[in-house]
Specification:
By secondary structure, the protein is α+β, with helices and mostly antiparallel strands. It folds into two domains: about 1-50; about 95-205, Immunoglobulin-like (Sandwich), CATH 2.60.40. Helix content is about 20%, strand content about 20%. The chain contains three helices and eight strands; from the N terminus they run ααββββββαββ. The strands form two sheets. Strands 2, 3, 5, 6 and 7 form a five-stranded antiparallel beta sheet that branches. A hairpin with a 6-residue loop joins β2 (about 110-115) and β3. The longest helix has 27 residues, at about 25-50. About 15% of the residues are buried.
Length: about 220
């Protein structure tokens, strides 16, 4: 800024020197202006020494930081439930019953297998698929059971299979006893080889129960 004032002063003096035809009053006015500009330049320089303006290289002012923000508390993650081994007192007091299936034909049809308690009449049943040659009951209450097989597609009161005395006999012509066998199911054990394979007796003659899952009325 000071440099600009001095340049302006020189221009004014040159202009004044070139205008030699001016009268004494104009010359005095120019001299007074020169003195005034010189004084202004000195005042400006004094002000610059009193006020220290920040330069472009000054370091930026660092503002105080705020208090740390609270972080979100993570939710507890799901944990794998602990598997508790069942104790002897918590185990179901049941047994199992299984055996093979047959039918007096080349193909075994879909059958309904019934395990019936001959004392209480309580029964359990399951359906098998066509061609299935094995069955198994799980979770039977310990008791004695008759085991019977019924043709699902052709329900009948006179033709169905059972586990009778003729089965362990061998189902030969010499096996003439077709009374039902009440097989025992024990707690925690499986009673095996109980096959309702006797399809050759007249159920009415031996008091075999008809399919209890069907409403015959």
């Amino acid at each position: 800024m000071k440099k600009t004032i001095f340049v302006s002063l020189i221009i004014i003096l040159l202009f004044a020197a070139g205008c030699s035809g001016q009268d004494e009053e104009a010359l005095a006015t120019q001299q007074a202006m020169s003195v005034q500009l010189t004084v202004q330049a000195g005042d400006i320089a004094a002000l610059k020494t009193q006020v220290s303006l920040p330069t472009a290289t000054s370091e930026p002012t660092v503002l105080p930081t705020c208090a740390p923000c609270p972080t979100a508390t993570p939710l507890p993650t799901a944990t794998t439930p602990t598997t508790v081994a069942p104790t002897a007192t918590s185990q179901a007091r049941t047994g199992m019953l299984s055996g093979s299936l047959s039918f007096p034909s080349e193909v075994i049809p879909a059958l309904r297998i019934v395990a019936m308690n001959p004392t209480t009449g309580v029964y359990y049943w399951q359906n098998t698929a066509a061609g299935q040659s094995f069955y198994r009951f799980d979770n039977l209450a310990p008791a004695s059971y008759w085991v019977l097989a019924y043709d699902i597609a052709n329900p009948s009161k006179t033709f169905f299979g059972a586990y009778s005395q003729a089965v362990p006999c061998g189902l030969s012509a010499a096996c003439t006893d077709h009374s039902l066998i009440a097989v025992e199911v024990k707690e925690g054990q499986e009673t095996t080889n109980i096959s309702p394979a006797d399809w050759y007796a007249n159920p009415a003659d031996w008091n075999w129960p008809i399919d209890p899952t069907i409403n015959w009325d």
